[in-house]
Amino acid sequence: MAKVKITGHASGTGTITLTAPNTSTDRTITLPDGDISLGVGIDDNATSTAITIDSSENVGIGTASPNGVLNVVQASNTSALLRLRNNSADTSTADGMIFTIDNASSPVGSIEMVSGGSDAKLAFRTNGAERMRIDSSGNAGLGVTPESSYASRPTLRIGSGLAIGGYGSGNPSHHWINANAYQDASTAAEKYIGTDQASQIKQTNGTIAFNVAPNGTAGAAITWDNAMVIDNDGHVGIGYSAVNGILDVRESWASKWAARFENTSATGLGILCISAATSGAYSLLELRKNETTQVLNIRADGKAISQFTAAAWVSIDGVGTVGINDSYNISSITDNGTGLYTINIDTNMLNSDYCVTAMCQGTNYSSAFASGHGTMSTGSFPIRVRDGANTVYIDTDEVMLTIFGDQ
């Protein structure tokens, strides 16, 4: 028959009180075979405290001096501080395990410390594979180990190439989302994560910039091209970061359109093209009714080409030395004698079927008229000036011509 022996300490005056619960149901206290010392704590081992409840009602597990409501200490870094299992089967553990939930054969999930000291990293695993890591600088990686980032600029890495970062302190409006790009931990230079192209959305002081970079190698420095910017006034710049207007569109390639708008429906095709050209025969603005048929072309050299605009015009001073008072798309005038001129077109016509209208006036004549005379070509045509029908040729101080046609 088991015995219960209560022995008081010779010098002690305290008492032990056992109070029955306020219930008719029996209660049982079962003591283990090992020694148990009851005092300010509970100890089931003669040399190591397992569970302690101090006088402030703080609980210590693995420590006799809890410094909080619950203080759990694990002396070994190869087992979990807290492990929940559905049976007693043992499984391997990673170093620095903090918390794990196991099934019958392997960990279902765990939180663990990797390495240690100032370089400690917090890792989160499911089904034995690491899913997220937070390093000692505050960088986090989802499904990937994050690169170390520049001081006070923590980064979240998602998968193989996405990085979200910003200032941890000092500049609350400076953040970025990068595809295949990160900031070097030593220099803050932006570099390629892998060998591929890169892109970036950066928010700085209320401005949003969209940057792109061509294909580069892993670890190489990135030179960004600014594709678009939205400034703090809501103005948009495309191809140019210093926005001058509500919409500022610029293209550095003379052979490409700065903007192109088209209707690609099956019933028709209309195109408006705006160019960044600055000189020569490059188009500044084109309107087309389809891919090949031009309706209006305004060029960088000031010429406008269409069926409803003049292909060229000129005002000639035909008295004395022949000169041009004013003109458009006329390169020069050839004096062929009294009242006879050849008009030389700067940009040739597409064919010789263009239309020329002419008139003249002269202070020394009561009447004068101008007409075509001879063969017309794509680059020039002759005219003559008379003072009447079938009369002599004359020089007048103003001969005016306008040309319409395909160019």
Distance N terminus to C terminus?
123 Å
The number of helices is 0
The Rg value, from CA coordinates, equals 45 Å
How many discrete structural domains?
A: 4
The parts where pLDDT drops under 50 for at least 5 residues are 38-47, 85-94
Q: Provide the helix percentage.
A: under 10%
Largest sheet: 14 strands, mixed
Mean pLDDT over all positions: 78
Count of strand segments: 34
| Sheet with the most strands: spatial strand order | 6-7-8-9-10-11-12-13-14-17-18-19-20-21
What general outline do the C-alpha atoms trace? rod-shaped
Estimated share of beta-strand residues: 35-45%
Class of secondary structure makeup = mainly beta
Which oligomeric state applies? single chain
